[in-house]
Amino acid sequence: MTELLRTFTAELAVIGSGMAGFAASVFAVNRKIATALTGNSGALAYTTGYLDLLGRVDGSTVAVTDPWQALENLRAAQTRHPLSRIAAAEIRSGFDEFTSFLGEGGIAYSRAGQRNITALTPAGTLKQTLCVPATMAAGPRAFAAQAACVIVDFEGLKGFSAREVVANLGDRWPGLVARRIPFPDMARGEVYPEVMARALEVPATREKLAAALTSVAGQARVIGLPAILGMHRPDHVHADLQRLTGLEIFEIPTMPPSVPGVRLRELLEQALPARGVTLIPQHKVARLSFDDEGANLDLHDSFGPIRIRAQAVILATGRFLSGGLEAHPDRITEPLLDLPVTQPVGRADWYRERYTDVRGHAIHRAGIEIDADSRPLGQGGRPHSERLFAAGVVVAHQDWIRSRSGAGIAIATAYKAVLAAESYLRESPGKLSARA
Amino acid sequence: MTTTLETEVLIIGGGVTGAGVMRDLALRGIHCVLIDKVDLCAGASGGNHGLLHSGARYVSTDVDAAIECRQENERLKRLAPQCIEATGGLFVGVEGDDVGFAENFPGLCRRAAISCDELTVAEARRLEPQLSDRLVKAYRVPDATVDPFHLALANVDHARLTNGSIYRSHTELLRFDIADSEVRAAVCRDSRTHAPLVIRARQFVNAGGAWAMNIARLAGCRDVDLLYAKGTLLVNHDRMTRHVVNRLRPPGDGDILVPGGTVSLLGTTSTRVENLDQIAPTIEEVDRIVREGAAMIPALAGARYTRAFSRVRPLLQGAGNTSDRAASRGFALMDHASQGLANFCTVTGGKLTTFRLMAEKAADLVAARLGKQQPGTTATVPLPIGDAGRWTEPGAAPRHWYKLNNPADMILCECEMVPQSAVNQIVATAPGEAAPAMSPPGRPKGEFRSAQHAGCLMSLEAISLRSRIGKGPCQGSFCGIRVASYLYDTGYYSDAAGLAYMRDFFDERFKGQRGVIWGAQAAQMELAEALHCGLLGLDALEAD
Predict the structure, then answer these.
(1) H or E stretch including A273?
(2) Would B105 be classed as within a structural domain?
(3) What percentage of chain A has pLDDT greater than the value 90?
(4) Is B484 at the interface with chain A, CB within 8 A?
(5) B29: domain range?
(6) How far is CA B156 from the centre of its chain?
(7) Residue B85, SS3?
């Protein structure tokens, strides 16, 4: 039996459904480019909901309060860093465009400001970030104002302890206390954030939770909770709970895979097809080839082979966790096109002796090289194809973990890659004619 | 203020030998304090493949050692079955291995009275389907596996229950007070808080393993002469075989695969080193072990490895004034009489398999010097089955959880299925920093209270050492956070020290991961680091 080949055509194919791939698709549909998005979307569920631009300077333990100034310094110190190669105005436009899209989909974000926001973590440590979802915004505000606040956790929810948050933050936030309550109608056994979040989409559950929160608030006017306030309409759930309690309420991210990450994924998987994006999620592109007329992406799902025919391609395949890079005992490779990977000489140099060394590990700076137009370089240092662009952390010369810049690199490089792809598509006669 | 402890015997070094001496003396009614500058099995005791030798490995090089192993193997299987899995062992030759060695092997085993059955190649591969199709020879011997952590914990706990003997972790020896040819006291400090502590005793036993030479020198003894051999081992993510599989050739690199619970250990290399600290596997060693192991079991070439670790074995140089040479091949017991000391001895060298015998010989000497006539009983008294070491056994925590059947008792370590109630028990009962104080017979109650480490809580590392937490595929990256969170919840951790414990635990686990981060481990590591550093900021704790 031969399986039928299904073929999709697009002007732009985006490979990779993490933050960079989704952001690239958002930028592309906003520019009316016919877009197909494919690739495994696992990594997005690992995000916290915070959108970091630059929270630390590599090798320093000092928190960055003004990320734009820090970017200027980065430009001077690390010329090959992907963020050094993108103008601040473009980075800001990318953040604004991406967060607007999310806001229209039901997850409102604070606008990128001049300064970082000091945000909370589930361990009661602090983290510098640029944009936070509306459901989390009251936390940093209350911390800055040192307002009396109750951190609430739930019986049966492991991995989030209000007492831990208070134990570690209490010396810098004296008015902070911890309370534990049962989650409505889930009084026995283990409870899970996703299940709680979906339960809170139901008004009756919200009313019961509101009553429980009111009873533990005491004199405090602000309540912090693990991130469980709804899955599809978090802004609505959040606003309704504030209305019911008369209190300011905020979420703190939980351990991944977390509700805020799943929310983003589900929103984008819904909103992008609604805007005309061809979405083929959870399948890995097995082969990518280029010919004179365009690019072919070949993949396979349970119904058989699929081919996406596109004029341009954005490679946003991520690093080791997402399969954009592969680590072998003797070297690091880029598996889809076997692009050259800039990397340390040998495995002995990948990691420093100490795991939490503040200077980070050389392996994180490995990655593919791109030119000024975001085109990945192939053998011989020339662009692999004029049709190929790259975005996200697959690109070399950055350590998004130590510099707290994962979302920043994803959004900024996606923005730049889409602009470059758009200009390529427009310059080439006939490429965008189908839409005109 | 300096705390002073008094006991009859101070034992320095919490490896299996020190733990064995402690139990042996306790069973003779002699009170002991055991100290370690880190914790139980921090040296070679905890860093070997956990093989309970049948003796067959030594038949070609040292028949006395082979016989000793055979006897101790049989004894421990009878007396401490809870610490042992009677896996059986295979010796296998592949194409290209020395045929003469293989032909002589059964005869050599017979000489040491070690049972050795020849298997056909087809039988061997039926028993162990992962064996190479280039197999030419196979024998079955009574090798087994032993859990050194369980063994040490159970020995220490039996000593505590017997006569209130005390184990103290994180107690670092600084110097000895010596007068009139006698050691009077050991001047120590808490290795974490630097709080001073003096331990007075009538007898002092140096069971420092690779550190024994350094400890002996603190007592002015120049007769302990050790060479250091670094051994490196890999932990394979899967259990590849039911039996221990040995290469049928003279002892060499990468010649053994030892199953343990759901994983396998592959080793070993041997390299001379000068320095005892800063020991880590090299990339070259890791690659060599994989290459050699794959000759016996080809699947090892592409297998997933979760850890690589190195420890230092002490090798004896010259014999010293060994008191019982005939029975002590491979280990040394020195009474240091020639060094002008009458109450200090050193026991070092040897093997995990023969730890009980070494401990017995040392205890004989100490008891004689104390004028106690009661003989040792560890050759006949079974090691009690208790709570102390039970959590180190793979499967113990899930069985316990299943039996309790309490939906509120949540699993904290999902790889190894360790629930909250198990963590409670480990913190409350496992030997170590929080061990309940008991007075030795004839001494007023409360005297040994001072042995408690005031203000020092059990770290995540200490909990992990006493359980399976962090030993699974995620190597603690998720459960470390959950366990810490739980301990904050219970109020056991109450300040930023818990964050430091978390960081130190991940740093410690990483030492074993560093050499094998490729394939799936690279993805795992990236996620872990994004979580620990990117989100929680454990790389910048001092700054916040």
Answers:
(1) helix A259-274
(2) yes
(3) 88
(4) yes
(5) 3-45+149-225+318-369
(6) 13
(7) strand
Facing residue for A356 by CB, picked from B410, B495, B533: B533
CB of B210 closer than 8 Å to CB of B346 = no
Minimum Cα–Cα distance from B527: chain A residue: A321
Q: What is the pTM of this model?
A: 0.90
CB contact under 8 A, B488 and A161: yes
pLDDT one-digit tens code per residue, A387-396 = 999 999 999 9
ipTM of predicted complex: 0.95
Specify whether B190 is located in the same domain as B220: yes
* Tokens at B133, concatenated: 């199709």
Predicted confidence (pLDDT) per residue in A113-149, tens digit: 999 999 999 999 999 999 999 999 999 999 999 999 9
**Cβ–Cβ below 8 Å for A46 and B410:** no
Structural domain total, chain B: 3
Distance of CA B48 to the CA centre of its chain: 7
Summarize pLDDT for B523-537 with one digit per residue, the tens.
999 999 999 999 999
Which residue, among B225, B311, B317, has the nearest Cα to B268 in the 3D structure? B311
Q: Which long-range contacts (CB under 8 A, 24 or more apart) does B527-530 make?
A: B527/A46, B527/A256, B527/A321, B527/B477, B528/B474, B528/B475, B528/B477, B529/A355, B529/A361, B529/A401, B530/A46, B530/A321, B530/A401, B530/A406
Task: Examine the pLDDT at B410 and tell me if it is beyond 80.
Answer: yes
Residue for token pair 């200490």: B462
Mutate which: B418, B508, B526, B536, vs A, most A CBs within 10 A: B526
Q: How many of the other CB atoms lie within 10 Å of CB of B263?
A: 21
Q: Biggest alpha carbon distance in chain A?
A: 71
Q: Please provide the DSSP assignment of A383-407 as one string.
A: BS-TTEEE-STTBSS--TTTTT-HH
The enclosing domain of B102 has a CATH number of 3.30.9.10
Strands of B158-255, DSSP E:
166-168, 171-179, 182-190, 196-200, 203-206, 226-236, 244-247
Same domain, B177 and B322: yes
Q: What pLDDT, on the 0 to 100 scale, is given for residue A135? A: 97
pLDDT above 50 (res B441) = no
Q: Are B190 and B171 in contact (CB under 8 A)?
A: yes
Q: Does B30 share its domain with B164?
A: yes
- In this predicted structure, what is the pLDDT of residue B168? 94
Terminal CA-to-CA distance of chain B, rounded, Å? 32
- Whether the pLDDT of residue B46 is over 70: the answer is yes
Q: How confident is the model at residue B318 (pLDDT cuts 50, 70, 90)?
A: low
Residue B186 belongs to a domain with what CATH number? 3.50.50.60
Average pLDDT estimate for A91-112: 96
For residue B100, being part of any structural domain is answered with yes
Q: Which two tokens stand for residue B81?
A: 């079955």
Please report the DSSP string for B451-473 in residue order: GS-TTPPPPHHHHHHTSSTT-ST
Answer for the pair B168, B160: CB distance below 8 angstroms, yes or no.
no
A338, A352 contact by CB (below 8 A): no
- State how far the Cα of A177 lies from the Cα of A305, in Å rounded to an integer: 56
Q: What are phi and psi of A38, to 5 degrees?
A: -140, 170
User: Residue A355 is nearest to which of B287, B489, B507, comparing CB atoms?
Assistant: B507
- For residues B318 and B312, what is the distance between their CA atoms, to the nearest angstrom? 19
Residues B484 and B537 placed together within one structural domain of the fold: yes
In this structure, is residue B113 part of a structural domain?
yes
| Candidates B539, B541, B542, partner chain A, best to mutate (most A CBs within 10 A) | B539
Please report residues of A whose CB lies closer than 8 A to that of B522: 320, 326-327, 363
| Together in a domain, B412 and B525 | yes
Look at residue B123 and tell me if it is in a domain: yes
Residue with tokens 């003096």: B198
Backbone angles phi, psi at B26, to 5 degrees: -60, -40
CB A5 within 8 A of CB A16: no
- Contact, A375 vs A50, CB < 8 A? no
Q: Which residue segments constitute the domains of chain A, with CATH numbers given?
A: 6-104+262-435 (3.50.50.60), 132-252 (3.40.50)
